[in-house]
Each structure stands twice: as structure tokens, then as C-alpha cells.
Amino acid sequence: MIMKRALTLLPLAAALAFTAPAAADDMRSALREGYGRIVFDWNQPVRYAAEVVGGTLLIQFERPVTGDVAKISQSLAAYVSGGRLSADRKTASFPLKPNITMRTFTVGQAVVVDLVTGLTPAQAAQARAQSVPPLTPTSLNPQAPTPSAPAAPVVGSGRAVTLRTGDHGDYFRLALDWPDKTTYRIERRGDRVAITFDTPASINVAQLNGRLPAANRPAAALIENGKLVLTIPQSAQFAVKDFATGNTIAIDLTQTPAAPGQTTPPPAAAQTPPPPAAKPPPRRRPPPRRSPPRARPPAPRPRPRRSPVITPNAPR
After folding, report:
1. Cα angle at 84 between 81 and 85, to 5 degrees?
2. Domains of the chain, with CATH numbers?
3. CA-based nearest residue to 40, from 65, 73, 68, 62
4. For 215, phi and psi rounded to 5 degrees?
5. Which residues pair with 176 in a beta bridge?
6. Is the peptide bond before 218 cis (omega within 30 degrees of 0)?
7. Euclidean distance between CA atoms 109 and 123, whole angstroms
8. For residue range 51-77, what is the model confidence (pLDDT) as tens digits?
């Protein structure tokens, strides 16, 4: 009897398990050589966005987050100076310490956010010794990306451009914060997108490649005609959107098909122009027709001269 009751409850429990909304089962952190890691474990894929605004890391989810933000901030004390969740628990914010940048990616259903530091190995080891022992991620370690190289090549001259990135699910946004407002143009160069800026500046390409998705690496920067040009791999079949607000230029690398006008047509094969058609010979005008000369009327025939008639004198 007891077994029968337990069996009848199993289908109900299975139905509830499949209809349960997405939820973050855990929030974990770990310290690595040169970077700190925050992991959000979800029971199904969720849309999210992560970016640094005013020195604060903001991570937004479409579902509420569970877990203790205070433990995360204590474990990553070398990178953040605190942390909190919004009232609806959908936004986690962490004020960053100086010279800390961010990169984000997903592994399965987990959302991973890495905090990259510019500290030397000795300084990073001292920071790890002073912090709380980390929670070691299990399934994420084999697929963890290689930390970015310490020497970051910078291309260009002038004031540096601040980079911000965010993964929005169906598109990846790159925001470039310029010291001053500038104009730009964007164009297709095969399977790459080229953005040409009209104001001199410098950009950290290594830092950018540490944040871009694998399909959009490696980015490159060069100087063309005295202008800074940034090129990013993006398949010609996917659309690219851009807009500017204030000193910020945003580039959206989407996964939606590009409109017909946005794809780059293949170069047309060179065709030899046909020889010009031979000009017809000039048309000769016929000579004017001449009317036959008029016949002159015949000369009048001379009249015969009459001899005068002499009348003899009559007798007187």
C-alpha cells in the first residue's frame, strides 16, 4: 500500500521538476593565477548581460539569483570592494578595485565572469593568502580559458579608449568609451568588420581579445592614413549594428542573418568591353535635280517689205 502511494507521487514530482522556472542553484567564486572567477550555476540556459559601468561590475539576469554575495566579495577581496543584489535579485553589482577588467562566457548552463588583474604574480599570491579560501569549481576547470598575456600590446597614439563588453544572448556588444566625441565609419572587409575612427587614440588589443567570443577573435588594430582602424572577425552572413551616444560608440555583433544590402557581394569578374560597333559610312546626299532648260520661242518671221505703189499723176 505504501509502495503504491509512492509510485503515484512520482509522475507529479517529475512534472513539477520539468515545469520549474530557471533558477541559479549556486553562486561560487575561485581565485586563479592572475584572475578571479565568479560562477552562476543555472538549471537551464538564461539570458544575461555583464558590463563595467563607472568602475562597478553589473551582471543582469532575466531570473532571480540565489546565493550569498557577501561570500563572493570576501573570497575575491583582491578584485572587488563589496557586492550586493538588487531588490528583485536579478542584478548583482560588485565595485571593482583599480586596474581590474572583466571577461565573461558560458560553459553549458553556467555563466562565468572572470575578473582580470594587472598585479604581478607575487602580488597576486599575497592577495590570495589574505583572502578566504575559495570554492573550487568542478566541471568548469577543464574548459577554463587561458589567462590573457601580461604584456598587452597597445595600438595607436594619444589617450586610451576604454573598452566595455556584454553578452546579450543573441548579440555581443562592444562599447568604446572615447575621451572626446569622435566620428567614425563602419564597413565590411570580407569576413571582418572594419571601424575607422577619425580621432587619434590608443586601444588595448590584447585586452579586447580576452573579452571577445571565440568566433570574433582575433581582433586587430592598425593605422591607415593616420587614422585608427579596428577590425573584428564577423561572418558576412550575420548582421552588425552600431550606434553612438555621447562619447561612446557601440558595436553589436549579432547572430541574426544580415540584410541583403549589408552583405558584401563578391567582386565581379573583369569583363572585356565589346568593340565599338563600326560606324556606317556617311550618307551622301544625291545631287540636286536640274530641270531641263526652257525652249526659247522661235524668232518671229520677218515680214516681207512691200514696194511703194506709184500712182501716175492725173492730167491736169
Report:
1. 155
2. 21-134 (2.60.40.3500), 152-264 (2.60.40.3500)
3. 65
4. -70, -15
5. 163, 249
6. yes
7. 33
8. 888 788 888 888 888 888 888 888 899
